[in-house]
Every structure is written in C-alpha cells, then in structure tokens.
Design brief:
Elements (H helix, E strand, L loop, with lengths): L10 H24 L3 E6 L17 H31 L16 H11 L5 H9 L7 H14 L6 E2 L4 E13 L5 E13 L5 E2 L7 H19 L6
Antiparallel strand pairs: 1-4, 2-5, 3-4
Helix pairs in contact: 1-2, 1-6, 2-5, 2-6
Length: 235
C-alpha cells in the first residue's frame, strides 16, 4: 500500500513571524518602561594605579535591547528561507534543501547566479515572484532586513541608541582618598542616578531609522510575501 504524500505548507514560516511579533511586543514594553525615569544606585570603583580618579560602571538599558532586536529580525529571515524550502518540497518532496534559501540581492546578475542553487526546484512563476521582491527592483525593506540580520549573524551585534538621554546624579556618600601630591580629598562613593529615554530608540551604524516602526514594517512585509505565495500551495 502506497504511503500518503506528505502535506507541505508554510506553517513553519508563519510560526516564525508570530515568534517575531511576540518578541517585538516585549521590546515595545521595555521601551515604554524606559520612557519613565528609573532610579538606581551606583558605587565608585577605584583603580589601583589612580585611586583618586573615580570610575562608575553604568549598565546602559539599551545594551539589553540589542539581543532582543536580533530575536525579532532573525525569525523573519528564517521565515522566508522556510518558505523557499516549502515551495521546493511541494514540487520535489525528496529534494536536498541544504542550499535552499531566500536570496537577497542588490544586482540582477547576482540574483540570476544564485537561482540554480538557492531556488533549486522552484517553478518559473515562483522564481519571478521572488525576483520581483529583490532590492534592485525597489524593495528597500528587504535590504534593510538583510543588513540588520547579517551583522548579528557574523558576531557583530545590532546597535540601537537614543540621542536624548536625561541623566541626573545625586551624591549619597563620600570617601576620602589622596592625590599623587598627598593631598586628602573627598570623592563621591555612592551615587543615585536617575535615567530616562524620552526620545525614540533608533538603529545605530548605517540604518538610523526608528527601531519599533522599522521592525513593524519588516514584519508586515514578510507576512505579505508569505500571503502572496499561498496560492502556489492551492494548486
């Protein structure tokens, strides 16, 4: 008795988009918390060679946001890769999918060169749809997705920043130390720091766009691509 043919769908792709949306909701909640002043106490760290020069280690909340951005962006690129694999397996269930992925190309000749390996097994209409989505055809959002995803993939974190950070300090306690000339001075020991991020959080490096709005756009565009490919699975 012949076995049933495996049903191929884009469920894995949609699940990755949903995962991205959950992480973005968490990101937005954290940013909203940063809009209100946060108070913390920091303690001086004296350096052995220069004990008279105070050093305060401040853990910037923006650092904690950067890994979360990666958890939002990477699933979107994976969703597109899964979509390509699903399209190929719909036609060729036993195809080797190790090289299949959604190409992102700035030039037409680059795309043509990668079709035979990365879009192996796809039909002409499917390849044409993916080509029409390429950055060289005016889809800058796909270039943005690639540029955000690839630096983190190659161990260079995605950078975010804010150009309007409000910080206030208040001395809570002092310690005495000596300068190189032997003079006794008082130096802040514990400091109360109040920090607030009222301005939008934006991407650093070359992107310089608002983080939340950019990520929402990328999620919308990837969802649109998946929906545009759904008719191929109804044939």
């Amino acid at each position: 008795m012949a076995g049933k043919r495996q049903v191929v769908s884009m469920d894995d792709s949609y699940r990755r988009v949903n995962q991205s949306k959950k992480r973005l909701a968490e990101f937005i909640a954290r940013v909203q918390d940063m809009r209100s002043p946060e108070t913390r106490v920091i303690t001086v760290q004296q350096q052995g060679a220069q004990p008279f020069k105070p050093h305060y280690f401040i853990n910037d909340p923006l650092w904690a946001l950067e890994p979360l951005v990666s958890e939002i962006v990477q699933p979107l690129l994976i969703a597109l890769n899964y979509m390509v694999c699903s399209l190929a397996k719909r036609r060729h269930p036993n195809i080797d999918d190790s090289s299949l992925q959604f190409p992102v190309c700035d030039r037409e000749n680059e795309f043509k060169r990668r079709v035979s390996s990365e879009l192996k097994g796809l039909g002409k209409k499917e390849v044409a749809l993916i080509e029409n989505l390429q950055p060289y055809n005016g889809n800058d959002w796909l270039r943005t997705l690639r540029d955000l995803a690839y630096p983190d993939k190659h161990r260079r974190p995605i950078r975010v920043w804010s150009n309007d950070i409000k910080v206030d300090f208040r001395t809570l306690s002092e310690i005495e130390t000596k300068t190189p000339t032997g003079e006794t001075i008082k130096m802040p020991h514990e400091m109360e720091m109040q920090v607030q991020y009222p301005a939008p959080i934006v991407f650093g490096d070359n992107v310089r766009s608002p983080v939340i709005e950019t990520l929402q756009l990328l999620q919308l565009k990837v969802s649109d691509v998946l929906n545009a490919c759904k008719p191929f699975f109804d044939v």
